[in-house]
Amino acid sequence: MLDSDPKLTTPAPAPDYSEDGVDLSLIRWMISLTPAERLDFLNDRLVGISAIRALNAPAAE
Q1: Paired strand residues for 17
Q2: How many Å apart are CA 12 and CA 25, to the nearest integer?
Q3: Most buried one in 14, 19, 36, 42, CB count within 10 A?
Q4: Which among 46, 22, 44, 18 has a CA at the least distance from the CA of 33?
Q5: Phi/psi of residue 20, each to 5°?
Q6: Is the model's pLDDT at 1 over the cut of 80?
Q7: Has this prediction a pTM greater than 0.70?
């Protein structure tokens, strides 16, 4: 006999990508952070990007 109790069914896992190819797992991860953690993460990325730009800048003559 099949048990049809809705409390016993496991929900389907959330998809990792939307129909247009957006990585939903990254969005879920970002919104799991506190606002301060988000700012720290983004600031770290900006520091890294600035360092790469400085290394790739043409030398001053």
Answers
A1: 23
A2: 15
A3: 42
A4: 44
A5: -95, 10
A6: no
A7: no
Which residue shows structure tokens 């990254």?
26
For CA atoms 28, 31, 32, 36, the dihedral sign is: positive
Rounded distance between C-alpha atoms, residue 20 and residue 41, angstroms: 26
The secondary structure of 7-44, three-state, reads HHCCCCCCCCECCCCCEHHHHHHHHHCCHHHHHHHHHH
According to DSSP, the residues that pair with 23 across neighbouring strands are 17
The kind and range of the H/E element at 49 are: helix 35-56
- Calpha distance 44→47 (Å, rounded): 5
Residue found under tokens 């720290």: 40
